[in-house]
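To: structure subgroup
Subject: Chain for Friday's discussion

All,

I'm putting the inputs and outputs inline so they're searchable in the archive.
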Amino acid sequence: MAARTGKEYLERLSASRPTVHIQGETVTGGIQDHPAFRNVVQTYAELYDLQHSAEHKDTLTYTSPTSGEPVGTSFLTPRTSDDLVKRRKAYKVWADHSNGMLGRTGDYMNSSLMALASAADWFAQANPAFGENIRRYYEKVREEDLLCTHTLIPPQVNRSVAGTQQAGGKLAARIVKEDDNGVVIRGARMLATIAPFADEMLVFPSTVLRGTPEDKPYSYAFAIPNDTPGLRYVAREPLDYDRPRHDHPLASRFEESDCVVVFDDVHVPYERCFALGDAELCNGFYSQTSSVVHMTHQVVTRTTAKTEYILGLVSLLTEAIGIEQFQHVQEDIAEIIATLEMLRAFLRAAEADAQVNE
């Protein structure tokens, strides 16, 4: 497969059967038709269609090194500053489509996966299989153009104790069993944005593990399909009230649901595991792989698009009601302009000063 179209994204979503609890209702299919999700799902489909538009396809895709097909630019492993610029331009096309209001479009996790796969040797120091697993999984997501959500912290119930001690250690998701084919996970995690309409979930480790024997069951990183048996999502109250777009121009298109993730003895095959039982490896998951750097490259690009939108909106408002001449209003607008130019400067410096690391 290559970069997906919106139609292909919707077809795969239609065939998926995730378990989602929302406002007292349990949804086990047809996510794309549910009132809480159908509008944002359509917006995500539009993003995939942009990959095939005459105007944007050269920016949003590049040639896969394995299949020779066009795949998403956010999967491109950067070797030069020009590669970083190409990645940023792709981020910006998608961000502009939502005025920067969509925080977890596919390019966010794609960027993380790209960096993790580039650091496959780092994962392999714990087990050679883990390095191969992350590299192979990255290629799967790239070639199938999958949409990933992720979860990375235990539930915030009692902040005076570590996540591993919540409810006597029985609240946070943990490894409760290991067999010849993988591990079994039980407990809860948060906070999976876009989970109801994603294809896969990446379960990333908490990076504040203390390395004690008690932390071992909570030290893991893996990926599973969204409709894996035993996996459930508890979605917060939606902000899309199923009202006309004229009255709710943002929420009616860009409401990305956030979910608590519940694992009811979910079996995870070894080939989908990237770290197991190694707290030190988990603590360095982001910093040692440069994953957070490339995720933030996307975040700052999106925030730039959002700030441009806010500046345009504020400018129109002040002009419409004739208050742009007041000094305190000019000061407020100047603050937005300064913020925007700082974001642009950060991006330019990050790309221009970038160097290849190990």
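Points worth raising on Friday:
Residues 51 and 57 are 5 Å apart (CA to CA).
The domain at 6-294 is CATH 2.40.110.10 (Butyryl-CoA Dehydrogenase, subunit A; domain 2).

D.
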